Structure formats: C-alpha cells, structure tokens
Amino acid sequence: MLRLLCFTAHPDDEAGAFGGTLLHYAEIGVETHVVCLTEGTAATHRGGARNDEELAAMRRREFAVACRLLKVGGDSVLGYPDGKLDRQDFFAVVADLARRIREIKPHVIMTMGPEGAITAHPDHSMVSVFATMAFHWAGRTNRFIDQLEHGLTPHVTQKLYYGTTLFTMEGRQHVSQSPSTAVIELSQHERDTKVEAFKCHTSQSPLFAFFEETVQKRGRLELFHLAAASTPRKAETERDLFAGVVE
C-alpha cells in the first residue's frame, strides 16, 4: 500500500492546507497519516476554554474528528509548545520526526513551505524546516544511530512536497511562496468535505469566514511544490503526488 505522511504545526492545518488532498488519496486506497507538532494552545480564539489544558484537550478532540472525516489512517499530536517551535532543540525535534518517518515508512511526505504558508506563521516555517531535515536524515545510516540500535531501519522517502498557493493575503507583509509544480484537482465532494473538516475545529469558529475566503481563491485546486526527490529529475507539472513513485 502506498503511504502519505503530512507534517503540520497546529490542529486545523491538516484540513485548511491539505484536507482535500488527504481525502483524495485516502479514497483511492493510499494509507494517510498526519503528525501535528503542537496542540494549538497559543491560539487567539479559545472556544470558551478556561486555561491551556482545557484548550489543548478541546483542540486534540477537534483534530481527531477532522482527521476521521478526512479518512486519515493515523493521526497524532506531539505536544510541542505552540508559538515556540523556533525555540526548540533542532536536533531533538528532527530526530523525533525522523523516527516517525522510519516507523511509518511513507512514499511521499507533504508539509508547509519554509515561508510559513500564506500567513507566514513562524510555527509553519519551523515545521517545514524540521520535516525537511527529517526527510533527508531518516534515510541515512549515520543519523540518529540510537534509533537503528532499537529495531528501526533507515527509510528513504521518495518525494517531499511543500503546500503552496497562487495568491497571498492582502494587507500583510510580503510572503515569497514556492512555485507550483503539482496540481491536485479536487472533486466537489472532496472540496466540500475539506470545508466541513475545518469546521470540526469549532474552537476556531471566528476563522471560518477567512477560511472560506481562501477556499474560494483556491477553487477546487490544492497546489504543491516538489522540494526534493530520491531520484534526480527535472521539474515538471504533475497531477499526482505519487507520479514516478515505486512501491
């Protein structure tokens, strides 16, 4: 079975940035996984939570419900501090993500771009940096050797994609996004389910109008940039993230 692994920063990123693509591949038999680094407790919108512990529990539940709607096969929230990913131990976080790559053994990884997506959120940037290095280092025998001494083996993921768009947000500081090299055209069902999955994050309901505005700009497309591949290749426009992947 083909496997797709998505690394995100916050609960709701899985639906907002990748929801249609996750559902698209799950429905054609690809095993999908989402690993979210934080519980989203630095959020402005708190859904009535009285403290961070209540908000964390709330957002974990919302994440799980959204992932079920998107037919994600495996989902986890790691609990790194929200809003502080840029202050975490780089080697330790990359080791954590590399271990998960070695366990799941994905054929394709997708995450956010180092610019931080259209919001340029620092956590979005950092999940990109961590996931990129984990993609490269998980396949090497001289990285995180202690993991290899406990039964894991190096795993070379064949392709790494960054999510991207053809628009930026008005009134915000400039964001330089990656050029699109892959286009996933969603069905109306996939697009509608993506919106429904985002709305499972009820603690973030004040963002629903903004989200629907970005969905309108995306239309039925989710766009990606091929950031790295295990075999050398020229850039070309793809319609399938698994194009050229060997099972």
The neighbouring-strand order within the major sheet is 3-2-1-4-5-7-6
Q: What is the helical fraction, as a range of percent?
A: 25-40%
Just name the CATH architecture: 3-Layer(aba) Sandwich
| First-residue to last-residue Cα separation | 7 Å
Question: Rounded to an integer, what's the Rg over CA atoms?
Answer: 17 Å
Q: What is the averaged pLDDT score?
A: 97
Could you please say which CATH topology applies here?
Rossmann fold
Question: What is the secondary structure topology, with strand pairs?
Answer:
Blueprint: E1 3-8, H1 13-26, E2 31-38, H2 52-69, E3 74-80, H3 90-104, E4 108-111, H4 122-137, H5 145-148, E5 159-164, E6 182-185, H6 188-198, H7 208-218, E7 221-229
Parallel strand pairs: 1-2, 1-4, 2-3, 4-5
Antiparallel strand pairs: 5-7, 6-7
General description of the model:
By secondary structure, the protein is an alpha/beta fold. The chain has a single domain (3-229), classed as Rossmann fold (3-Layer(aba) Sandwich). Helix content is 36%, strand content 18%. It has 7 helices and 7 strands, in the order βαβαβαβααββααβ. The chain has helices at residues 13-26, 52-69, 90-104, 122-137, 145-148, 188-198, 208-218, and strands at 3-8, 31-38, 74-80, 108-111, 159-164, 182-185, 221-229. Strands 3-2-1-4-5-7-6 form a 7-stranded mixed sheet, sandwiched between helices. Helix 3 (90-104) packs across helix 4. The longest helix is centred in the first third of the chain and has 18 residues, at 52-69. The protein is globular and about 45 Å long. The N and C termini lie close together (7 Å). 44% of the residues are buried.
